[in-house]
């Protein structure tokens, strides 16, 4: 399946590589660098890159490229999921997944990659199993290993390896039993110059933090489960129960995990929480004009926070002299990027920014105005309308503390001007 794995930073340095079958020389990454050179942003790198004898399957996370090399026919989504799972495991072990943390813990990284994939095929990808095989690093364990020469590898097999519930170990005990659920939704949309929504999609997921004693069996109900159509489940979810009753029934893993991911398309009835009024003009031989005003959709009832506007201006723009009524703006004259950080929008005081655009003489004017990109988040609000119903616990006698949080934030929202 996976022959080799290369981890590359933003500077193009291959600082870590792992080979599962035959050793593939790192020159294979030249095809990756060639594809990366054609991309405007690192996020635009193709997921699959073809070479004469291999296929490169790539993900970009935490400002790192994870490049896997495959030879035989394989499902790209399967490999992409394995790579994302590896990054999640690194974050769980080291609290972050950066070049520094991976280099600082390179021995544990190689041990994890050895246990997660056997001869290139996935073997143990659950955090509970891995933590029994390889102990997470801490300062005391590092000092003890340096003195004794031991490693973080356990000498015994994990107790859940042969269990039919491999994601949860036996004998878990907590003084306070609690379960928290975060419903997070990201909006991807394209809005035309008249303010009409051309395309709108919602990518949502439910992240859980479950700290319950024993072996609880949970059922989670939604008030409107028919909204969830295209759904991806954690292995702990009983799929037949969901198909027949639209109820999530599962024995949860211990700690943090992602219960479900879902995708909702063609949301004609959903409106973006904020809207823009814009006026962008370029005039040859004189200053152009840039005006943008934000507004809140009526009936939202929630505050919109962390609002930010980004725009990539044409090459003919030398400078921008703007006056915002709220927040602050920066214009990079080299990259031609405008960033306006607004923060929280007060419904009684609508933010706006206006000013002049300095255009270079003799330079051809752009054929169209640049698109605007929005970032924002709304707490305790799910734009799709999904709502939790009730959570029941079976198999244990205690009553846990339950908490639910909703969050809607911008994914990729483009406003055409």
Q: Could you explain the architecture of this structure?
A:
Helix content is 16%, strand content 41%. It has seven helices and 23 strands. The chain is an alpha+beta fold. The strands form five sheets. The protein has a nine-stranded mixed β-sheet with strand order 11-13-9-8-23-21-16-19-18, with no helix packed on it. A five-stranded antiparallel β-sheet has the order 2-1-5-4-3, sandwiched between helices. A four-stranded antiparallel β-sheet has the order 14-15-20-17, with no helix packed on it. The protein is globular. The longest helix has 19 residues, at 76-94. The mean pLDDT is 89.
> What is the general shape?
globular
Percentage beta strand: 35-45%
Q: Return the average pLDDT rounded to an integer.
A: 89
Low-pLDDT parts are: none
Element order: H for helix, E for strand: EEHEEEHHHEEHHEEEEHEEEEEEEEEEEE
Strand order of the largest sheet: 11-13-9-8-23-21-16-19-18
Oligomer: single chain
Q: Count all strands and give the number.
A: 23
Describe the largest sheet: 9 strands, mixed
**Spatial gap, N to C terminus:** 46 Å
Query: In DSSP terms, counting alpha (H) and pi (I) runs of 4 or more, how many helices?
Result: 7
- Rounded to an integer, what's the Rg over CA atoms? 25 Å
- Global structural class: alpha+beta
What is the share of helical residues? 10-25%
């Amino acid at each position: 399946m996976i022959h080799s794995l290369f981890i590359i930073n933003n500077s193009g340095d291959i600082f870590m590589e792992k080979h599962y079958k035959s050793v593939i020389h790192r020159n294979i990454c030249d095809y990756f660098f060639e594809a990366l050179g054609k991309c405007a942003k690192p996020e635009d790198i193709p997921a699959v890159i073809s070479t004469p004898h291999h296929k490169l399957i790539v993900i970009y996370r935490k400002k790192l490229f994870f490049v896997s090399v495959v030879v035989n026919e394989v499902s790209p989504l399967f490999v992409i999921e394995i790579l994302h799972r590896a990054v999640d495991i690194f974050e769980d072990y080291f609290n972050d997944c950066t070049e520094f943390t991976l280099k600082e813990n390179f021995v544990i990284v190689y041990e994890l990659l050895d246990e997660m994939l056997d001869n290139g095929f996935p073997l143990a990808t659950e955090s509970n199993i891995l933590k029994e095989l390889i102990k997470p690093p801490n300062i005391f364990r590092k000092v003890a290993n340096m003195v004794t020469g031991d490693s973080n590898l356990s000498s015994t097999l994990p107790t859940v390896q042969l269990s039919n519930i491999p994601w949860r170990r036996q004998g878990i005990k907590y003084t306070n039993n609690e379960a928290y659920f975060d419903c997070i939704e990201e909006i991807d949309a394209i809005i035309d110059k008249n303010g009409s929504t051309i395309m709108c999609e919602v990518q949502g997921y439910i992240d859980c933090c479950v700290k319950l004693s024993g072996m609880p069996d949970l059922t989670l109900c939604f008030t409107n489960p028919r909204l969830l159509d295209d759904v991806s489940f954690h292995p702990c979810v009983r799929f037949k129960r969901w198909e027949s009753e639209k109820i999530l029934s599962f024995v949860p893993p211990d700690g943090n995990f992602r219960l479900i991911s879902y995708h909702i398309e063609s949301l004609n009835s959903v409106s973006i929480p904020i809207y823009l009024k814009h006026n962008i003009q370029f005039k040859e031989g004189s200053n152009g004009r840039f005006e943008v005003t934000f507004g809140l959709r009526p009936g939202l009832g929630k505050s919109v926070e962390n609002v930010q506007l980004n725009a990539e201006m044409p090459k003919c723009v030398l400078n921008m002299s703007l006056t915002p009524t709220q927040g602050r703006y920066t214009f990079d004259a080299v990259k031609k990027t405008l960033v306006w950080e607004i923060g929280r929008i007060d419904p009684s005081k609508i933010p706006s920014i206006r000013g002049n655009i300095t255009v270079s003489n003799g330079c051809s004017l752009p054929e169209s105005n640049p698109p605007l990109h929005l970032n924002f988040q709304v707490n305790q609000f799910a734009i799709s309308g999904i709502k939790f119903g009730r959570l029941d616990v079976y198999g244990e006698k205690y009553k846990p503390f339950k908490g639910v949080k909703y969050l809607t934030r911008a994914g990729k929202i483009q406003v055409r001007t």
